[in-house]
Target: Sodium-translocating pyrophosphatase
Amino acid sequence: GTERMRELSGTIYRGAMAFLNKEYQVMVVYAVIAAAILALVVGHQTAVAFMGGAFFSALAGNVGMRVATKSNARTATAAKRSIGKGLTVGFSSGAVMGMCVVGLGILGVSIFYYLFGDPRIIVGFGFGASSIALFARVGGGIYTKSADMGADLVGKVEARIPEDDPRNPAVIADNVGDNVGDVAGMGADLFESYVGSIIAAMVIGFTGVTVGGVVLGQTDAVVLPMLLAAVGIFCSIVATFFVRTKRGAGIKTLHAALNKGVFGSAILIAVASFFLIWFFVGVVEIFWAMLAGLVAGILIGLSAEYYTENRFSPVQSIAISSQTGPATNIISGLSVGMLSTMIPIIAVIGAISFAYYITLPNGLYGIAIAAVGMLSTLGMTLATDTYGPVADNAAGIAE
Model:
């Protein structure tokens, strides 16, 4: 990019890393104190696992933040040539974050399972990841929204200048906030969910599992969730190559390309998981439980798209309500937001119920496998999510 673009990108990078470093300083103090308490109350192995979970979660957020903040100017430059080029560069940076989160997640769980051989100790790893997620998601989210609202209030309301206008100094804080909340914060949050689902399935499998009249070996029941997660990573990597567009592509084509990657990864994971489960344990009921979670995850994504896309009626109804003033806008927005929770709730309840009954008498193991299935596409979906703030920053730099 131009010298000015590199200057703006560097400013955003320094601001984001300054926030992250300050946040991590607080996290380290908390993590050390919490680990010391765990060592005294539970055991030193759990404390070590806790520190490992905190480290891997922080590392994933740090790597993702660095890549995202280094890619915004490149994305803006690529978009000058074509929208498709901009998508390729922006999505590639998001893919680094997505694969980093799932890769470090399964790597950390595998390392501590190899070291200790007891999934109950690895619960500490999930606890450590949750602790970092609390700081990163909540702290980053507060910063993100405060910077966003502050920039809009100063720019749009007081100075009457457009969004992302370079004359508004708060725009830099807004762009920093996009990375803090939607890259590092979201990455830590989903890292915790990802490793939590795997560890839960491993712990339940460690107690002994019988599904469909077949008694699973303890090692098989413990290792299977990690193998399913590994299959998900591999299929997500393959699916990133589906996110391509032809020359002259428009906005709708870009959206279709992203959906192609998400749906492609889900199909690949479903097929690969069937063969893995069939040849590894030979119990097809476990596959149906995993598929229930996978389908529920796709339905939740489609529901979110329906309620937030401007080409669908929910957003259009809010826009129409805005014509009569802010009061009707708020009421309409709240009602649509509340209604949007219905499909995700039904999808989760349906997946839990189906997975439980299909894997009786050990229905809890089925629910845990369904959770692993729901998050098996995380590498691809997180890549798509991270592409958002990168593109947003690129638009701000271009402005």
